[in-house]
Design a protein that fits this description.
The protein is mainly α and 206 residues long. It folds into two domains: 4-57, no CATH class; 69-205, Orthogonal Bundle (Lysozyme). The protein has helices spanning 4-27, 69-92, 97-108, 128-133, 142-159, 164-173, 175-180, 189-205; strands at 31-35, 41-44, 54-57. It has a three-stranded antiparallel sheet, with helices on one face.
Length: 206
């Protein structure tokens, strides 16, 4: 007969499996997991900036294609729509427009109405604290969102002496996480994948 501890562990595993099955079938996305201080388990497909979520499963929905025609057209349409303001904000903050495009593509795929489960909003997925820090009143407004996100990215580049990898890691995990790890990219799977993704998009846009 199994011990109570084993039964509880088995029950948790079954619950996780059921949750994963639901998320995979609905979202078709990467799944991240986080266990809080009370032992509660949280799952999401869009972890917040600076969170301790770690990648649990990489997947995609059945029959889907990463470069589907619909997704590609929508991305291209939104990219064209916001390109003028992205260029203006980039110039104002001494950033390359291609870099800003890469961050936006990774953060929201150019969707100004994107909202993460943790509450990050807009093209550059600003959290409330970041928005307040940079004077963004309406995070849903594309221009305000872009301006705040670009200023944050500029400050991170200055803070980490123009080390692009560290600045991007800080944008994802928070500057304190990078500083705590001795000015190295934190050993979070999510953050490392994010940095690689943005750099790939950045190279492709040049």
């Amino acid at each position: 007969m199994r011990s109570r501890r084993e039964r509880v562990k088995s029950g948790i595993s079954l619950a996780l499996a059921l949750c994963l099955g639901t998320l995979v079938s609905v979202a078709g996305a990467d799944i991240y997991i986080y266990k809080d201080l009370k032992g509660r388990i949280h799952l999401t497909d869009r972890p917040m900036q600076g969170s301790n979520y770690r990648l649990l499963r990489h997947t995609r929905s059945p029959g889907s294609r990463a470069g589907s025609t619909h997704t590609s057209r929508r991305l291209a349409r939104n990219r064209a729509r916001f390109s003028p303001v992205i260029k203006a904000v980039a110039v104002e903050n001494r950033l390359q427009p291609e870099l800003l495009h890469a961050v936006i593509r990774a953060e929201s795929a150019y969707d100004p109405s994107a909202i993460s489960p943790a509450g990050a909003v807009g093209l550059m997925q600003l959290m409330p604290g970041t928005a307040e820090r940079y004077g963004v009143v309406d995070r849903r407004d594309p221009k305000e969102n872009l301006a705040g996100g670009a200023r944050y990215l500029r400050d991170l580049l200055d803070l980490f002496e123009f080390d692009l990898k560290l600045a991007l890691a800080a944008y994802n995990a928070g500057e304190n996480a990078v500083l705590r790890h001795g000015k190295q990219v934190p050993p979070y799977a999510e953050t490392r994948q994010y940095v690689d993704k943005v750099l790939r998009f950045y190279r492709e846009s040049k």
